[in-house]
Amino acid sequence: MAKILIVEDDSQTSALMQEWLTQVDHHTVEVLNNGDNAMVALRLNSYDIVVLDWQLPGKNGPEVCREFRRAGGNTPVLMITAKDSITDKEHGFYQGVDDYLTKPFHLKELSLRVTALLKRPHVYNSVLEAGPLCLDLDSRRVSKNGQDVILTPREFAVLEFLMRHRKKIFTASELLNNVWEAEASAGTEALRQCIKRLREKIDTPGDQSIIENIPRKGYTVN
After folding, report:
1. Last residue of a domain, one of 119, 149, 175
2. What is the pTM of this model?
């Protein structure tokens, strides 16, 4: 028996999921209907699985997942959504989602995915490293060769995202979509300036930049 948090603003859908998971699978289930309350619950309580809707009042599902992971949360997250494009799913996975269930779905499939996630070992690494650089998600600190590097929140977010997905190349638009999610007015120039400032703070003069720019492809941290 697992302790499950369902975050879903459609009361009929959440009631059906709660009934199925409690009566058929015999889990303990809590239900919330908005992202802001979900963040409070995740800070105060421990769960074995989080079933998280994408579209929510307050913080949406990907935002909840991203902040939960940044705070060190390693509970498996099953995202339920009507969005079925690979671009949407890729975005969710980058925020720390473990699996997807696309609406409409059969409740038995919900059971199967929950069971599969419960069997997985989950370790969330709160310390990311790249060469001499160390990024601690718990303390929100960045250091280079043991010396603190002072970053703005935006610089930290860009660096965290690239370090979390080391060796993967991201286009400017992908970085903007994932790091500037709530800022529709941000453009490639804002990203370019942010990375320029980051390089000034984290690179060693004469050495290759920690954030590499791959021509016609994008940015990566190796």
Report:
1. 119
2. 0.69
